[in-house]
């Protein structure tokens, strides 16, 4: 009385890739959904510069100020992603300087803004007590990056 175990066809050595493809597609969808949420800060069309050096611009090294002109022509100022009315900007920066006088300020201004408007923000930042005020720019298209 012998029993035969399994079918007489033998072993199937083909690799089943269907579960692997399912997992890859799920991960792809997750990354596509999550990636736009990872963008930090306020979206600003930065001006181009031929030469620029990359510095740390996170909140631990500098205070990031974003200035942009809305569609209605009004300027909006964001200090560390928090909207500040334009007429209260200098008072807000003076208060921040009293708490964090050792930090520098990075200004991200929209490339469509007038130079005079950006300069006013820089002067008010300087009058609030900050000595180091820098403008953030992008590399010109076609320029190789310097690290």
What labels would you give this structure?
7 strands, five-stranded mixed beta sheet, 147 residues, alpha/beta, 28% helix, two-stranded parallel sheet, Nucleotidyltransferase, domain 5, elongated
SSE order and pairing:
Layout: H1 18-34, E1 48-49, E2 62-69, E3 75-79, E4 82-84, H2 89-99, E5 104-109, H3 115-127, E6 133-135, E7 138-139
Parallel strand pairs: 1-7, 2-5, 5-6
Antiparallel strand pairs: 2-3, 3-4
The main pleated sheet reads as: 5 strands, mixed
- CATH overall fold name of the domain at 48-139: Nucleotidyltransferase, domain 5
Q: What is the overall pLDDT average?
A: 80
CATH architecture of the domain at 48-139: 2-Layer Sandwich
Radius of gyration, taken over Cα atoms and rounded to an integer in Å: 27 Å
Range of helix content: 25-40%
Per CATH, the class of the domain at 48-139 reads: Alpha Beta
Point out poorly predicted stretches. none
Number of helices: 3
What is the number of E strands? 7
